[in-house]
Write a structure and sequence with these properties.
Blueprint (H helix, E strand, L loop, with lengths): L4 E5 L4 E4 L8 E3 L5 E5 L3 E5 L7 E8 L16 H13 L4 E5 L4 E13 L9 E9 L5 H9 L12 E3 L6 E5 L6 H5 L3 H7 L1 H4 L11 E3 L3
Antiparallel strand pairs: 1-2, 1-7, 3-6, 4-5, 6-9, 7-8, 8-9, 10-11, 11-12
Length: about 220
């Protein structure tokens, strides 16, 4: 299949096929991973969601047909191509970017469009650079559902529980997700660990949410 570069607007009602294919197409597909340093464990990666794909390429709008580099003959003039792209951009609506013979078929927005009015040695040709970014449509039905749902009450952090006895008050602390001994108890974490070795086990770096620790006096 021949490689063709297309931009379309308004669900395909208007289309522009680029007369000269770019030499290269750069595709950037970011991923939202986050590296976190955790005390006693070191660095680990929190895997995030895929970011919106980005596309960039450069080429030119020819002033006349040349079979050596033109993909077809009845193409718009350079000024018509520029006017079309700028009008679509200014309408503030997503476009459709397709490269036939590849898996590139995305709704996009125009992030940057620049061109040279005149380049020496190429009279009439207009050289341009175009950057696009994937556009993701918002699921309005899911959004409406989330808006109408009553917000759940926030979980309030429980203070250390004090167990009342006849002769001595014993303070306790219940481990929550993300806690470490050093994070919660600071420089006294070793004392807390020794007092709760039977609950925690042999590794003070491994504590589990829900474990109730006795706080030494």
């Amino acid at each position: 299949m021949a490689v063709e570069f297309w931009l379309s607007y308004n669900n395909g009602a208007e289309k522009l096929r680029f007369p000269v294919n770019p030499a290269t197409l750069t595709v950037n597909s970011p991923f939202g991973n986050t590296d976190v340093n955790v005390m006693h464990f070191g660095e680990f990666t929190v895997i995030g969601e895929r970011g919106s794909a980005e596309f960039s390429f450069e080429s030119f709008f020819p002033s006349y047909y040349n079979p050596v580099y033109c993909e077809y003959s009845d193409f718009p003039t350079p000024s018509e191509c520029i006017s079309t792209i700028e009008r679509w951009r200014d309408e503030r609506k997503p476009l459709r970017f397709i490269v036939t013979g590849s898996n590139v078929n995305y709704a996009v927005t125009i992030r940057e469009f620049s061109y040279e009015v005149q380049r020496a040695g190429n009279p009439g040709d207009v050289f341009y650079s175009l950057s696009l970014k994937e556009y993701r449509f918002l699921d309005t039905s899911a959004t409406a559902k989330n808006v109408t749902e009553k917000p759940k009450p926030a979980n309030k952090q429980r203070p250390p529980v004090v167990n009342k006895g006849t002769t001595k008050q014993e303070k306790t602390y219940t481990i929550k997700y993300g806690d470490t001994l050093s994070k919660v108890f600071g420089k006294d974490w070793r004392k807390v660990y020794e007092a709760n070795r039977k609950v925690i086990g042999n590794n003070p770096n491994i504590i589990k949410p829900g474990q109730k620790l006795v706080l030494p006096s």
